[in-house]
Design goal:
Blueprint lengths: L4 E8 L2 E9 L5 E6 L5 E6 L3 E6 L5 E6 L5 E6 L6 E5 L4 E4 L5 E5 L6 E6 L5 E6 L10 E5 L4 E6 L5 E7 L5 E7 L7 E6 L5 E5 L7 E6 L5 E6 L3 E6 L5 E6 L12 E3 L5 E6 L3 E6 L5 E6 L9 E2 L5 E5 L4 E6 L5 E6 L5 E6 L5 E6 L4 E5 L5 E5 L6 E6 L5 E6 L4 E5 L3 H28 L3 H10 L5 H23 L1
Antiparallel strand pairs: 1-2, 3-4, 4-5, 5-6, 7-8, 8-9, 10-37, 11-12, 12-13, 13-14, 15-16, 16-17, 17-18, 19-20, 20-21, 21-22, 23-24, 24-25, 25-26, 27-28, 28-29, 29-30, 31-32, 32-33, 33-34, 35-36, 36-37
Helix pairs in contact: 1-2, 1-3, 2-3
Amino acid sequence: MGDGTLRLLEIVDGVLHERSKLTGPGGILYCAAWSQDGRLVATGNDHGRIRVWEAASGTLRGDFAGPDAVSLGLLFLPESGDLLAVDQKGQHRVWPINSGSPGLLAAHRSFVYPAVLSKDGSLLLTGGWDGAAGYAGGLKLWDARTGTLVAETGQPGDIFWSADLTPDGRCAVVGVYADSEANLRSEVIDLATGAVRTTFRPAAKSQPERTIVHPDGRRVLSTYQSGEAYLWDLATGKVLWKTDLRLLPERTSSSAAAISPDGRLFAFADGDLGIRLVDAETYQDVRRWEAHTEAIWSLSFSADGKWLLSPSIDHTVGVWEVATGKLAARLVGHDAEVLCAAMSPDGTRIASGGRDGYVRLWDTTHFENVTQLGGHTSYIYSLAWSPDGTQLVSSSGDGTVRLWDTRPLAEQVTAIRARAGALPGIKARVARALAEARNPKNALDGLLTSGGLTPRERELAWQVAVGLAFSKTAAKLD
């Protein structure tokens, strides 16, 4: 309709009644379509904006923005259930509806910053501002395959600004911003016990902004708002190396940093606008170059280490050849500051997110924006791909985490049901192993390495053990 709304009507006793009114994204609605099962309805407007709702509840399922052209036709594809859109320029796109439907994780009470997947893709670590809102549990662990909350920790007042997992998935390393300088810290948390193994506090009392575990699992790189970066020993907290990030006085960015997948290079935002590569063994500069006209917010390497992504508050993402420092592409399309970007494991897609609240997907052949995923209502702070590339995780200032999963919906439901069915038996086995052993850690290791468990059962056993450990730690603090 001309007012940008869609009215769903039904006939009752021969009389036409308005069942519901759905508000579009603005502009004039030019087309609409029903899914084949009648559960979903989609609209397209005069600026290429597509919205999809659940017809019964009016819940928004998707919000997509294509090229700025009139949407002329929409069709739900019979096999996948995804939405085909055709515009006035003759362009057509397929938007993910069932494949790529987001799972919503809404247990956080405030902004969510870090979102990190374990190397095997089974565990998701998220951190947020729950503590600033007066709540405990700002650091959360989830079963990434089902979106089930496994454990949480953190006291009121603690803000988990940054986080990472060790390569073996046994420890979380977090940067904590608190309401007093004395509580600013980085911690190594043993997931098997819930206990803090190491605490790191540099001499300069400053906010920890980036926390990255080296692929060797022994070193941690932390950057600070004061413009310093420290490399420290995970086991002892000893400083191994320190460098100045040369931040500009008028800086508005975070202290961006990344470690290459092979562990050979550190990448830093150099003076906010440039990029600096450092040899991770000799600590000597390898290369420096200018990258953006405004501050770089974060940095990330591709899985093969050949590319470096630099999201910036200049609304773009730089794609750089690591070997030469040459610009391969500049991704332009976000309407606001870009805060995060991540390349898929197979190198075919780049995901980016920022203050416009959308996840954009780009192909790496022509570096074109091929998909825009809506659903978050505030900025997107972190993005992470699963190892097989079937899942993309986004964390947001709206207090939620979304799992964009390309597995068929039936497969996702099957995974959730399988977890629920297996969990009682797994819990009994873990409890029995811990009760019968003098050393709980040895008992857990023995259970996880035993030949009697499938790979998925081992994942669940580890999650059960982590949940028990964190609940005991929380009980001690109460």
